[in-house]
Amino acid sequence: MDTLTRRRFLLASGVTGATALAGGAAALAWSDLHKAAAADPLPPGEGIVVLLTLYGGNDGLNTLVPATDGAYQKARPDLAYQPHEVLDVGDALGLNPAMTALHDLWRGGKVAIVRGVGYPRPNHSHFVSMDIWQTASPSEPGTSGWLGRWLDAQPDDRMRALRAVSLGGVLPPLLAGTKTAGSALPLGRFALPRGTTGSALKALGASSAQDCPNAAYAARDTADLFTVSAAFSPILADASTAAGGDGNASPGAAKPGTGPGGKNAKRAAGNALARQLDIVAACIESSVPTRVYAVSLGGFDTHSAEKGTQSALLKQVSDAIGAFQQRIGAGARGKDVVLVAYSEFGRRVAANANDGTDHGTAGPVFVVGESVRGGFVGEQPSLTDLDNGDLKFHTDFRSVYATVLDRVLGTDPASVLGGPFPALSFL
User: Fold this and answer.
1) Contact 23, 180 (CB under 8 A)
2) Which PROSITE patterns does this UniProt record tie to the protein (predicted)?
3) How far apart are CA 179 and CA 5, in angstroms?
4) What phi and psi values does residue 347 have, to the nearest 5 degrees?
5) For 165, what's the count of Cα atoms within 13 Å in the CB-facing half-sphere?
6) Predicted pLDDT of residue 317
7) Residue 35's pLDDT band (boundaries 50, 70, 90)?
8) To the nearest whole number, what is the mean pLDDT of the chain?
9) What distance in Å separates the CA atoms of residue 307 and residue 323, rounded to the nearest whole number?
10) How far apart are CA 275 and CA 293, in angstroms?
11) Torsion sign across C-alpha atoms 254, 255, 259, 262
């Protein structure tokens, strides 16, 4: 049960305050959800955000590559890609050679690349920088996530536990609000105890007028476990069956090389991120009332032997996004879904002595979807006008968030971000 308990992850993440432990959803059976979706499904046009976190600090310069720039070649004599190796996207830039599926989407006008994204007074610590990105609070430590604050403002009803879901056993701080929090959905089979133990656990989620506030929060959080289990267990059980019991596929997922995913589905076979996005796609197709999904991939802390490691990771990212977008784009909700991929920082311009790169600052953010206005947003950072060896950022990451909040989630960005930030042109 520990892997399902959101309180544990909230406390471990540093997101504090007893009110952040509140859940508030009542137990709900899958049959109830199915009937509700059939009678009153999430209306077409209700936006859905899929937020992809690349943990470790992805090297933006070897992702969106200025291969013809002499300063790039000089700074990375053994790590640089040559102009003929990269996938041309114009403006003297190219995608990493492994990102063929994303390049296909770029040519189809379904990808926007926001260049030079960062924040003032950048921090090179993984923990601090990721905390800044997830709380949207560069100037002081945040105690709630930016999407958690969005969740706080949603109706306090039985669906609240399902409105924001993270794929994987840990709830990221970005989904923790001050009054409530999203749900963590472990991959593979998702089931709570049955029999006497299950009945006793369910009884712990029953509310009582005699409960003190902390006891009420704990009860509501326990009830959320049953809500999430009822909603997602059938999807994850089907995934496990489809994968021969290992939970690595999802219901309705195309077999490699077939169905809506086509060649991109084949590329994504065996890809851990693709499995997460397959489950997200199945949930969207099943009209599960979730409007925010958080998925992730780690391993981008490439201090040594970067080229091969990052290339393999970027192939996973590209193939997974390609298969997801082809599947979702072919469905009824294609124009409602927007995927945003980011990392906590980029890397230094110059390579280190171990054929890798060290912690840096600004990097690109990728936005993918049928409704996305494809192309570049923002300036490409200079490789000669540096801040102590680091790229200077041109676009505040909170402008990316403001655009998503306004144009996908239909929320006043200032109420979530604590002030106005200019919207960007990718939507």
Assistant:
1) yes
2) TAT (PS51318)
3) 17
4) -120, 170
5) 29
6) 98
7) very low
8) 81
9) 24
10) 14
11) positive
Strands of 351-408, DSSP E: 363-368, 375-377, 395-396
Could you tell me if 347 and 61 are in contact, meaning their C-beta atoms sit under 8 angstroms apart? Answer: yes
Name residue 411's amino acid: T
Tokens describing residue 185: 């959905």
For 387, other C-beta atoms within 10 Å of its C-beta total 13
Tally the residues of the chain: 427
Structure tokens at 89: 């996207």
From the CB of residue 143, how many other CB atoms can be counted at a distance below 10 Å? 17
Interatomic CA distance for residues 150 and 402, integer angstroms:
11
User: Where is pLDDT greater, at 405 or 8?
Assistant: 405
Predicted local distance difference test score (pLDDT) of residue 19: 32
Tokens, residue 271: 């890809």
What type of residue is 59?
D
Q: Greater confidence, 312 or 30?
A: 312
Architecture per CATH, 2-417: 3-Layer(aba) Sandwich (3.40)
Q: Which of 358, 399, 392 is nearest to 125 (CA)?
A: 358
Percent of the residues in the chain that have a pLDDT greater than 70, as a whole number: 71
> Tell me, what amino acid is at 256?
P
The sign of the torsion formed by the CA atoms of 415, 420, 424, 427 equals: positive
The pTM for the full model equals 0.80
Residue 220 has pLDDT above 60, yes or no: no
